[in-house]
Design a protein that fits this description.
A two-stranded antiparallel sheet has the order 1-2. By secondary structure, the chain is mostly helical. The protein is built from 3 helices and 2 strands; from the N terminus they run H-E-E-H-H. The mean pLDDT is 82. Helix 1 packs antiparallel against helix 2, helix 1 packs parallel to helix 3 and helix 2 packs antiparallel against helix 3. It has one domain. The two termini are 27 Å apart. Helices cover 70% and strands 5% of the residues.
Length: 80
Amino acid sequence: MISAAAGICSWVDPFPLLSDGGGGSRLNPLETWTLMAGISAGFATFILGAFGKRVSRVLLVLLGPLLIVFNILGWLGSHR
């Protein structure tokens, strides 16, 4: 759930650019933290899925990398 929520935040792009005080702008650090939370939760899903039972094990092992890719693509899409 954490990884999916972080991915949605990355895709929706709720973090505006911050002013750097010299007339320019910089990335919001919350955006990087959200990416790290999404990737970490996706990785934990993948690892913990290896210790599950029956069908849930397979679903978690497949879902972990998908969540990681979802978060990375959302983060990359907001930096164009």
